[in-house]
Design brief:
With about 200 residues, the protein is α+β, with helices and mostly antiparallel strands. The protein is built from five helices and nine strands, in the order ααββββααβββββα. Strands 1, 2, 3, 4 and 9 form a five-stranded antiparallel sheet that branches. The two termini are about 20 Å apart. The model has no long low-confidence stretch (mean pLDDT about 80).
Length: about 200
């Protein structure tokens, strides 16, 4: 191999590697590091909150309207408060209950009052005190606070969008590198032709 060919190959390799050395992650990297397929889910501004004790009195069934941020679609949701307490507090999706199971778990409805009505002295029943934002509430029994809770607020991640777009992103990365390589080869070819 003559010196010009070796120099040309070296330049070509350097030019093709430059995008990754400078932090440019290419289309595929951006696809998988971005938030494609992410969907923020949270309680609707008016969540129509309903709470009831389960028939066995061991948990509280929470029913509310959830909103998807990407299209503002409202969906009715239900979950068990105590069984999902740590999950919801960590900002993760609780284990939702659907259909007939909601009917089986729905027991005695809990009275809901607002933060301005805190008269709980002497009240032996389990009550809910709803905060102004309607997304946070406190359970109270016998005049004492049992705990403060929030409605679920989490990201729903779908990798299927990324999986569908990956072949196109990889093709785009290959075309970009091929385009850079073609320019370098073209410049080297023209340079070698002008020298003859």
């Amino acid at each position: 191999m003559n010196m010009r060919v070796k120099r040309g190959i070296s330049c070509l390799l350097v030019v093709c590697i430059i995008p990754w050395m400078t932090g440019c992650e290419g289309l595929t990297g951006q696809l998988w590091s971005g938030d494609y397929g992410d969907d923020h889910r949270h309680a609707a501004p008016e969540p129509d909150l309903k709470l009831s004790q389960t028939p066995d009195l061991k948990d509280v069934l929470v029913q509310y309207d959830e909103m998807r941020s990407k299209d503002a679609k409202i969906q009715r949701r239900a979950y068990l408060l105590f069984a999902n307490e740590k999950t919801v507090a960590a900002g993760r999706k609780p284990r939702f209950i659907t259909g007939k199971a909601v009917g089986r778990l729905q027991g005695f409805p809990l009275a809901i009052s607002y933060m301005t009505n805190l008269s709980t002295a002497g009240d032996l029943t389990l009550r809910v005190i709803l905060e102004e934002d309607k997304h946070h509430f406190t359970l109270v029994s016998n005049g004492r606070e049992i705990g403060s809770y929030q409605l679920p607020d989490y990201m729903q991640h779908s990798t299927w969008v990324q999986l569908l777009l990956t072949p196109a992103a990889v093709t785009g990365d290959v075309l970009i590198v091929a385009g850079i390589a073609a320019v370098v080869v073209g410049v080297l070819y023209l340079k070698s032709q002008s020298g003859n």
